[in-house]
Amino acid sequence: xxxxxxxxxxxxxxxxxxxxxxxxxxxxxxxxxxxxxxxxxxxxxxxxxxxxxxxxxxxxxxxxxxxxxxxxxxxxxxxxxxxxxxxxxxxxxxxxxxxxxxxxxxxxxxxxxxxxxxxxxxxxxxxxxxxxxxxxxxxxxxxxxxxxxxxxxxxxxxxxxxxxxxxxxxxxxxxxxxxxxxxxxxxxxxxxxxxxxxxxxxxxxxxxxxxxxxxxxxxxxxxxxxxxxxxxxxxxxxxxxxxxxxxxxxxxxxx
Length: 255
Ligand code: PGA
Known about the structure:
Layout: E1 7-11, H1 18-33, E2 40-44, H2 50-59, E3 65-68, H3 85-90, E4 95-98, H4 101-106, H5 111-124, E5 127-132, H6 136-140, H7 144-155, E6 168-171, H8 185-203, H9 205-210, E7 212-216, H10 224-228, E8 235-238, H11 245-254
Parallel strand pairs: 1-2, 1-8, 2-3, 3-4, 4-5, 5-6, 6-7, 7-8
The structure holds 2-phosphoglycolic acid.
């Protein structure tokens, strides 16, 4: 078990309309209020739900922070369909997922794009949840560690931070996302430890020691404890199970 404070983040992906999102956030606030979470908790709804979920955080005093699922690096201008860091901040967003494998695969995001997003978020004071992870063929070829290390180095090129809490990493093997196939805790630890070594090279050893590295990919109440026992796994990025308030609250409870 690591000495870092655990972080459980929910990635709603493209689920929940505005009103559904408010209801889910209220259910989660209720489920968590009875248990006073020891872990940090972040909820990442779709853009249009952010303001509604922020209202729940503020008025129901919900014990979770607000995260977005994407951002554009330019500050403003003619970029139809995009959302800036300042827009995210204006509705109370303090975390933002970047580099999710679905964005890399379906929307052709490159390491260079992710690097620009990372720098823009850090400059704006929003904490990036930087995702990385290999496809099944890469793992079969036993190239998964090198692959993930290269993703992290590219995303952090030219990045420096003063405080480890400015950044979160999420290791999500693509073959485990939404498939019900989970990596074993040992698989996760192998890659998360390599990520931490890479962070030491990119950001310095002291910072690397404090950065939280999450596991993601079919994480659920029944398997989260095994991951959290590992020295270099500091929490989870949760997709499907974050859409059921009781399941997500149970995962927070176990953290
Ligand atoms: P999953 O998604 O928990 O549904 O596998 C995780 C993620 O993609 O962040």
